[in-house]
Amino acid sequence: MSDITSGLKLIDLSVEELKFKRNYEFDAEAEIELLFNFGAKIEVREEQARLKLTCDIFDEDFINKNLPFFLKASMYGFFESKDTPVEDFQVNCIAILLPYLRALITSFTAQAGLPPVIIPPINVYSLVKQQQEANEE
User: Fold this and answer.
1) Of 45, 47, 54, which is closest to residue 9 (Cα–Cα)?
2) pLDDT exceeds cutoff 70 at 63
């Protein structure tokens, strides 16, 4: 195995939930800021891990806030590692699964008749730190 090859493997992935509601009263000329929130939760069992990654775009009060839609997506990634404990790869697991979730959101919004929503790059280290702080509370 090469020095740059990871011992971490993505075994499978699946979409758990995709919830979408559209605001047909939205003023298409209105300028809006893309508001989104990510969450990550990893469960480790021996050499395997299951990562749940979620993304909410806007919130369920989207109509009152004159926003175009509400979207909630969650996806699971199943990982294994033979050489290193999987929990040591938490940041890597998120970084591997995140592009799949971003692609799901982009393709779904385009197929829903909206301009494709492209989630900007995410600082995975900051996301992990936020999740750890939230779990400590």
Assistant:
1) 47
2) yes
Instruction: Label residues 85-123 b or e (16+ Cβ within 10 Å = b).
Output: ebeebbebbbebbbeebbebbeebbeeeebeebebeebe
Asked, for residue 38, whether it belongs to a domain, the answer is yes
109 within some domain: yes
Terminal Cα distance for the chain, rounded: 41
Per the structure, the complete domain to which residue 93 belongs is given by 8-131
Q: What is the mean pLDDT of residues 105-125?
A: 93
pLDDT digits (tens, 9 = 90+) for 24-60: 999 888 889 999 999 999 888 877 899 999 999 999 9
Rg of the chain's alpha carbons, rounded to an integer? 17
Considering its fold, how many domains does the chain have in total?
1
Contact 13, 75 (CB under 8 A): yes
pTM over 0.85: yes
CATH number at residue 62: 3.10.420.10
Helix (H) or strand (E) holding 121: none
